[in-house]
Amino acid sequence: MARTVRQKRSRRTLATFLVLVLLSVTIITLDETGRAASLTSGLKSLASDVYSPLRHGVNGVLDPIGRFFAGAVNYSSLEAENQKLQDQILRLEHRQASDAAAQRQYAALQRLLATDRLPSVASLPTVTAEVTAQNISNFAATVNIDKGRDQGVTAGDPVVGPGGLVGEVATVTPNGATVRLLTDGKSQIGVSFGHQQAATLDGAGAGRLLQIQYVPSTAHVFVGELIVTSGLQGGALPPGIPVAKVTSVRSVVGAADKQVTARPLADLNDLTYLEVIQWSGSS
Amino acid sequence: MSGRVVVRILLLVAVTLLAQTTVVLDVRVGGASPEIMYLMPIAAGIVGGPVDGAAVGFLAGIAVDLLSPTPLGMTALVGTLVGFGVGAVSGGAVREVRGLPTLVALGASVVAVMLYAVLGAVLGESQFLHVDLAAVVAVVAVANAVLAGPAVRLMRWAFEPSAGEPVGSRRR
Fold first, then answer.
1. Is A39 near chain B, with CB under 8 Å?
2. pLDDT digit string (tens) for B109-132?
3. What would the CATH number be for the domain defined by B3-159?
4. Does ipTM surpass 0.90 in this model?
């Protein structure tokens, strides 16, 4: 009797496990094959719409609490006589800190303005956004920004930062977006160098150099050469945006293509303000 | 699972997800950040057994997938396998032996991250093998080992039988 009950329970355990595994595999298949891409991306967008305000709220709550405790610790042990002086010192320190922060912010915006003067970008409408989070996953090179659909940001829009192209908008919510950085393994951008020589620039993972594919062995390319967007790939990106500089060129005997690596012009580890070029909607 | 248990599990998953995407995200060691969502199936497997471990793993995984730029269902599959595996392998011993949940969380986290990377590569997400896997594995495993104790206690609270439910009916 006990054995039968155990067997039944064991069968039920296995059945539940198999159902969950099958369900996961089905979801992956639907997402990967693209048959239900609109459904899965819609679900992701909906989840992000619901979750983003919650996350912003929690961030908003945690910051003041941290500041409150820091303040409480600083003030509680002070003598009344010294409090006035201490307050004054704190005020001055705060002012100094906020001045430094303002200077950093000013410098970041100045660097961003330099990007705006690029002839290829200057004539296009842009949305200035602030980076709210870096790399949500250990396995993807992305950043989140504080501007989304309501501000005119569309999936596929190119994003530039100080120095040059940073990546493309991957997903959009009403008031936020995820930007896939150049270094992300999924990133693939049509680029050109030299005399309109076209190639493809692939991301190879966060912190790694970019790989330039399809550079013929006969092509003239040198270390330090500037790589810009080609405007090909069906006009996915506007032409002429600076992207990277060549760091190494290797010719392999018998190979049709050269092995070329490049480093992004923008510092992808230090992104504060970004400019989203409203290209997808206009093209 | 009773309705009350489901509500508590949902609450735990939501709070852990919030912690993961706010506070934990800022903690970066060697370029990698902890992934405390894997603690959900690990703790559920230890407390409730293979079925509860798999169910909580699926739920926590799908929640992560919905907010990540990676393929939908991948974390759910890894969570299901890890939760079931922890529940099946650990038996009742983990609950009795002090310190064993920490070791189980350490080992299961290593398996979870490796499984996720391999699965991603199989699905054509080549960037999954380009990340500094050693750093990610180390950071995730150590963080989850440290937090295993509190996670198991929270999961025990979630699985606590209500007044009318028979005690000891949890582990399957």
1. no
2. 999 999 999 998 888 777 777 778
3. 1.10.1760
4. no
